Prior knowledge:
The protein is α/β, with parallel strands linked by helices. The protein is built from 12 helices and 12 strands. It has a 5-stranded mixed β-sheet. Strands 5, 8, 9, 10 and 12 form a 5-stranded mixed β-sheet that branches. A two-stranded parallel sheet has the order 6-7.
Amino acid sequence: MTFFRAAVIALFCFMFGFTDDAQAKKRKPKPDFQIKFATLAPGGSSWMKTMNAIDDEVRAKTENRIGFKFYPGGVQGDEKDVLRKIRSGQLHSGGFTGFGLGALVPSVRIQELPLLFNDLDELDHLRSKLDDRFFQEFDDKGFIHLGWTDVGFVYLLSKHPIATPDDMNSATMWVWSGDPLAELFFRALSITPIPLSAPDVLTSLQTGIIDAVYSPPLACIALQWYTRVDYMLDVPVTYGIGAVLVSKKSLKNVSAEDIAILKTVAAPHLRALTLKTREQNIEAIDEIKKEGIQVVIASDAARADFYTRGRNAWQDGVGKLYSQELLDEVKTILESYRQR
C-alpha cells in the first residue's frame, strides 16, 4: 500500500470512528487529570499517533495521574476556536500551526517569512539561537511550549498552472481568515485572496469559490485538497511551523514533578515527529505526482521574481508581527550561517 493511500484510508477511518484514537479511548482508564487536546490533524495521522505515544508514556510515568483526551480532525473548530475554548477552560491543550501560535506570540511567525530559508539546516540553526526566547514568550502568555511540530515547506497548488508571480493574478486564491502573515505575502504579490477558515477550504474548492491554495504536500493529502487541484508550483513560498501548547492555568492542580515529566516525555517525541514529517513531505510530493498533479517548474527569472517580491514583504511585518531588532537579528544569524 502506498503512503498516499495509507494517509487517505487513515483519514476515512477517522471519519467513520475506527481510528487508533477511538481504540485508545476504549483501552485507557481515565487519569486523575485529563488534558483535553484538540487539533486540525486527522485521527490516524502521524501527528495523532505521536500524541497517543506521548499519552501512553506520560500515563505510565505519572502512574495515570495525568493523561490526554483527544479531539482530532477539527471537531473543536478552527485554531482560533480552540484558543478561545482553552481560555474558557473547555479545552486545555492544542496542536497549532503558525496561525494559532501567532495569535498568542506574533513574533514566532518570523520563522514563516516568505522565502526565508534555503534549506532545513538553516531553520534548525535559527531555532538553536531563538528557541529560548520564543518558549519564554509563550510562558509569559500562560502556555507551556512542549515542542515544535512543523508542517513543512509550503507550496502553491491550483486548478490552473501558476509559473510566475503574475500568473497568480488570474487565480482565486485562498487565505486563512485572519492570518496577517499570509495577507502580508499576498499583498506583496498584489493578490486579493478569499479569506476562509481551514475546514472550509475543501468545500470551497469543490464549489469553485476558490481555485488555488497553499499547503505542505503531506497536509494537502491528509485534508484531501489534492483531489481538487491539478498543478503545484515547485517554489516553496514559505515554511509552515507548528507546536503543541498546554495552558499553564489548566495544570494548576498538577504537581511540578508531573509537569516536568510531561515536558521531558513530549520533547523527543515531537522532535521525532518533525523529522518524520519532513521525510513524509518528500514522499507526498512523489505520491501526488502519481495521482496526476503536474509540478510546474519555475524558470530562473520567475524564481528570482518570487524571491524578490516575497522578501520585499518582510519589512511590512515590522511593528505588526515582530520588531525591527528581531528581523535584523534573524537576517544576521542566517547570513553568518551561510557564509560559514
